[in-house]
Design the sequence.
C-alpha cells in the first residue's frame, strides 16, 4: 500500500461503522452456522447475497480490483478451504468432512465499510485443525488488547505473533490488516508480526481491520493460482483467518463487528 493520509473518523462516523459491523456480524454468524459437510460454496454465496439484499447493504469485495487489468473479484465472500489462506472463490466447491473453511466478508452501509472474517470446522476436524482455529481466534484478541491511544501499531502485531508462535504456529508476513472506512482498504497497514514499540502511534478516530492469518506450517505463501486471487500456504498445510474491524477511542478499543 502506498503511503496515504490516515482518515480519522468522527464519533458519528464510528456509529455508522458500528451499525455496518452489527449487520456484518449477524450475516457472518448465519454463514458460520451453515458450514457443514456437503454444503457448497455456491450455497454460502447465495446466502450472503440474500442477506445483503435483506439489509440493503453493498458487498465490499464483489468486483473489487487490486490493479488495472487484473481480474475483478467475482463474489461477495472470500471462501477459502484448508490450505487456502485468503481470497478463495466459493464457486464449484463442496465442503467435506474435516475441512476448515475461512470466510472473509465486507459490507458497505451508509457510505462506510466494515470487514470481518471467521474460520469454521466442518463436521469432525483434526485436533491440529481445532487448535489452529482456537489459537488464531485468540491471537486476534491478543492483538485487539493492544489497541489503545498511545500504543504503537507494532504492539498489535507483536502480540499476535508472540501468541501464535508460542503455540506452535506461524504468522503470514506477506499479508496484513489495514485501515477501513469510506474505502474497504485504507491506510495504515496493520501487520500481524513485528517488534514491540515500533511504528505509528495509535490515536482516537483510527478504524482498523485486524486480521491474523495463521499457518499450521511455515509462513510462506503461494500466489500462483490461475484465478489470480487465491493465496495458499506454500507447504500445503492448513491456514486459519479471523478478523474484526475496531475503532480507537478515548475509552480504549471498540470492536465494531462483534455480536454483543
Sequence:
Amino acid at each position: 500500500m502506498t503511503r496515504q493520509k490516515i482518515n480519522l473518523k468522527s464519533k458519528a462516523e464510528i456509529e455508522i461503522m458500528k451499525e455496518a459491523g452489527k449487520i456484518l456480524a449477524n450475516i457472518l454468524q448465519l454463514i458460520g452456522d451453515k458450514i457443514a459437510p456437503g454444503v457448497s460454496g455456491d450455497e454460502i454465496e447465495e446466502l450472503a447475497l440474500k442477506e445483503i439484499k435483506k439489509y440493503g447493504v453493498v458487498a465490499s469485495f464483489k468486483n473489487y480490483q487490486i490493479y488495472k487489468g487484473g481480474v475483478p473479484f467475482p463474489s461477495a465472500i472470500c471462501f477459502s478451504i484448508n490450505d487456502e489462506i485468503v481470497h478463495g472463490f466459493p464457486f464449484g466447491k463442496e465442503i467435506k468432512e474435516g475441512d476448515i473453511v475461512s470466510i472473509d466478508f465486507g459490507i458497505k452501509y451508509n457510505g462506510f465499510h466494515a470487514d470481518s472474517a471467521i474460520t469454521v470446522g466442518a463436521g469432525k476436524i483434526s485436533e491440529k485443525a481445532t487448535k489452529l482455529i482456537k489459537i488464531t481466534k485468540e491471537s486476534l484478541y491478543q492483538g485487539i488488547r493492544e489497541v489503545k491511544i498511545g500504543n504503537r501499531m507494532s504492539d498489535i502485531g507483536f502480540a499476535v505473533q508472540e501468541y501464535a508462535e508460542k503455540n506452535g504456529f506461524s504468522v503470514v508476513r506477506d499479508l496484513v490488516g489495514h485501515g477501513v472506512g469510506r474505502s474497504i482498504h485504507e491506510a495504515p497497514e496493520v501487520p500481524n508480526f513485528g517488534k514491540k514499540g515500533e511504528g505509528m502511534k495509535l490515536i482516537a478516530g483510527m478504524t482498523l481491520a485486524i486480521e491474523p492469518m495463521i499457518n499450521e506450517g511455515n509462513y510462506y505463501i503461494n500466489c500462483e493460482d490461475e484465478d489470480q486471487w487465491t493465496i495458499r500456504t506454500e507447504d500445503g498445510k492448513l491456514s486459519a483467518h479471523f478478523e474484526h474491524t475496531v475503532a480507537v477511542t478515548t475509552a480504549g478499543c471498540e470492536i465494531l463487528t462483534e455480536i454483543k
